[in-house]
Design a protein that fits this description.
The chain is about 25% helix and about 30% strand. By secondary structure, it is α/β, with parallel strands linked by helices. The chain has a domain at about 25-155: Rossmann fold (3-Layer(aba) Sandwich), CATH 3.40.50.2020. The longest helix has 18 residues, at about 20-40. The radius of gyration is 17 Å and the shape is globular.
Length: about 200
Amino acid sequence: MVKTATKRTKSKLRNAEIIFSEKEISKRVGELAAQIARDYANKHPYIIVVLKGAFIFASDLIRRMNIPLEIDFMAIESYCNSDKSSGVVRITKDLDANIESRHVLVVEDIVDSGRTLSYLLGNLATRRAASIKVATLFDRPDRREVDVRIDYKGFDIPDKFVLGYGMDYAQHYRDLPYVFTLDYFPSESEMIARR
């Protein structure tokens, strides 16, 4: 069910539609955290957060897992300032530690074509981790081009460009606590004036 955007968003962005509210996201993140905590009990997982989009989801998720863990970050570049992947994938920030013999959980914000995640998983597989699993809050299977395994999934989302809760357009809207879609790309002045 699509909800009308809040007054805060609608007043600054034309035709914004909220597809997941803050409350819905929080509930699902709690459910995923409980499942992951059960699965990783006594395994001291090594959490790899894919920057930048997954940092908000990962932060909320790990605080609710309540198990010993370690966190690291990777930055993978595959998107330009558009709604489509560029097709070129490269690591721009690598891990700070060795993951050999560790139980790794990769945390993504959204799995779209699967190319970025496939590249990342292939790279991590060469590092001899004990196990590698994937958690994503959002999955867009309609755009899948490469088959990738997702072990923990929050929501399937429609084939629309989504913003908020870590996901951005030209580095804007990550801070919003809900996920919404627009039927146009906002101008720089609209992005700056949205507050």
